[in-house]
Amino acid sequence: MSKFKIMTDSSVQLTQEEIKKYNITVVPLTITIDGKNYVDGVDISRRDFVKKMNESEELPKTSQPSIGRFVDVIKDLTSDGSEVIGIFLSKTLSGTIDAARQAAEIAGKSDEVHIVDSELTDRAEGFQVLAAAKDSQAGKTLDEILAHVDHIKKNQKLRMMVVNLNNLIKGGRLGPLAGKIATLLNIRIELHMPGGNLEVAKKGRGKKFSKAFDQRVLDDIAVNKDKIHEVGISYVDTPEVMEKLAQKIKEINPEINVLVRETSPIIATHAGNGAYAILYYTE
């Protein structure tokens, strides 16, 4: 039995095989669509979410897991004497990490629960979670596990392309006038997350801008091809296009493992249709 159990949230990008193999506990966020609540990954899938999002009258809302749910999970995970390492999406995107920390205090387990801000989300968060889970199974110490996670965090990149700004406008992330102008001009934006902060890196128009974005990322992967072992490509609703992008990465280095999957509702809600992200880290 592992001394440390790994806990994360449902914005993470992990396969069911990984979750089972490494005994990872995923605490789900809640989604509200036109007044109806869903538990992420429990009673609504990522594919179904996008369909409902496109049919909804209002922009869906995502909520962090309740403190009560976290308390129950923490008590269960620590009931056999194990400690918990909780790795969550960036604090700038959600209050999930604060809820987990409060729950640990309420459960009287602050000393046994070690909370980490991934400063990212999706597969980038997943890389950190997997590293912690593998290290735990290998019997490494808390300091060794946290140092490994921190090393990955410092060497990670999240490159995201938003091609449709409607959801950003609806969510108030762009002012009405700025949003209207951006839509008329077919503006697309490239987002990065340095230090856990979501920032607009570049703005451009149309498919030409997206192609240039793809090429910049591919060029960076090519430069670092011997130091990159895994890449995540997460998308809202363009699986065929993303598989082609993955193939280009494999052509750079066939040894790179590329995981192509739909992103979580919390990302899809704000990023909107057509959005995608490429996530990786250098060893």
Between the first and last Cα atoms, what is the distance in angstroms?
29 Å
For the largest beta-sheet, the strand count, sense and barrel status come to: 6 strands, mixed
Q: Which blocks of ≥5 consecutive residues have pLDDT under 50?
A: none
As a whole number of angstroms, the C-alpha radius of gyration is 19 Å
Based on secondary structure, the structural category is alpha/beta
Helicity level:
40-55%
Average pLDDT across residues? 93
Number of H- or I-type helical stretches: 11
- The strand order across the widest sheet is 10-9-8-13-11-12
Q: How many beta-strand elements?
A: 13
Which H/E pattern describes the elements? EHEEEHEHEHEHHEHHEEHEHEHE
Based on Cα principal axes, name the global outline.
globular
Subunit arrangement of the protein? single chain
Strand content: 15-25%
